[in-house]
Amino acid sequence: MTDRPFRFGVVAGLAPTGAAWTETARRAENLGYDTLLVPDTLWTLSPWVALSAAAAATSTLRLGTFVLNAPLRTPAAVAHEAMSLDLASDGRFELGLGAGRPGAEAEAARLGLPWGTPGQRVDQLAETIRTVKETLAKSTADATAGQARGPVLRAVQQPGPPIMVAGAGRRLLTLAAREADIVALGVAPTGTEYDLATKVGELRDVAGDRFDRLEIAYNLAAVAPAPSDLPGWLAGQLGGDPAELARGGSAAILTGSPTEIADALRRRRDALGISYINVNGAFMDQLAPVVEALTGR
């Protein structure tokens, strides 16, 4: 379906010390990963702070939010932070956005912010994307017109950092298909390869001719040699016993040798077009041989 090269990202957002956090970033870079992705929760590091520190500690690693809850920020604030981080990272930033993950309503309440209905949150996400794109375009025009007046804040990447939109519902996928560069597919941990294929089919349906221009991303919750090797603490994240989920065919858990996992990802890319693979940071060492096999790094 696609000859797009593989990309691999590490999803992480917490460390016991600042030094440990920057070491996580450097290790991801040294293992050949393309991106470090930081979630947006109140129990992990602020993505802006964490990615800024990671940018200072690395030189080639790309840096992304995975993903910002659009309802928790004004569109103008997102645009300003995105331009700032893109400049500070020398053009290595990728802006990941979403309409709010399950459970984030409680975090909105802690911040004293309204949460809104699903439809209202999708509308706010659309407004955020529009504002980011308009702000980027204006900053470029101002920089070009006002060179004699001195520097103007603008993104290094032009026309701006790549935009990733994460989602599962049809309305959100429709927005992503129209406005994003990268679409991160939302499939529950219990979802099988069939469910993943169904979601790709839905994206293809709403994207039309734009489908082939989209980079499709999917998040791996875990990788291991066998289901019995999966740690029990994953149950809290996945909502069920990880070994049983793996035996039941969860698309988010891959088990086997590095060669077997690499073959599975090749088949998934060839059949579904999924070429951007992100993995739970706790498993970046386990997936590293697969990264090497599929990218040469």
Automatic annotation (TrEMBL):
Alphabetical keyword list: Oxidoreductase
Annotated transmembrane regions: none
GO molecular function, one term: oxidoreductase activity, acting on paired donors, with incorporation or reduction of molecular oxygen
Domain of life: Bacteria
Domain Luciferase-like: residue ranges: 19-221
Official protein name in the record: F420-dependent oxidoreductase
Organism this protein belongs to: Actinopolymorpha cephalotaxi
Native organism taxonomy: Bacteria, Bacillati, Actinomycetota, Actinomycetes, Propionibacteriales
